[in-house]
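Before any further analysis, backbone shapes were mapped to integers, which produced the following:

***
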Amino acid sequence: MGKRASKRNTFNYNLDRKKLKKKMIKKYKPRIECDQIRKAWNPHRTAKQNMRDMGLAFGGKGVLPITSKAGDEPVDQVMKPYVVREMEEEANLPRKDTTTCSTDLIEYVQHMIREHGEDYKAMARDEKNYYQDTPKQIKRKVDLYKRCHAEEHATFLASLQAQTSS
């Protein structure tokens, strides 16, 4: 065996070192998703200090203070109480339910209701039940349809009533 030739370290002119450094900084300092925390964040302080200033807990340790017999413990002053207030206001805003049903599921549920009404056991035995759903699974699908498309369900039932009465 002969001596192996070692490859010399050569400078790579195709790499932009400035861009690489920015990319590494971006990777190790991820973007804070919460707007309120991001606005109040001080980059010159540690994460624990920032969270304490905002009145939030950093980790589970030390969240609930252990009471001593003396009872003369200094209470941490919250320096940025507006952060918690804004977060509570955002959490209390009503959210719109964005869940929807696929068109296949809508057609499936409408067929089952048209054929069997509210009899889920009969729906489970129907030949259109390709996936062999149990009565409880079918009931969940019907409830999902009723919740997501309430107006459409009401018009569908009204059209069924009109068909049965005539």
Remarks:
- The chain has a mean pLDDT of 89.
- Helices lie at 17-28, 35-40, 47-54, 81-92, 103-116, 120-125, 135-148, 150-165.
- The chain is about 55% helix and 0% strand.
- The two ends are 98 Å apart (CA to CA).
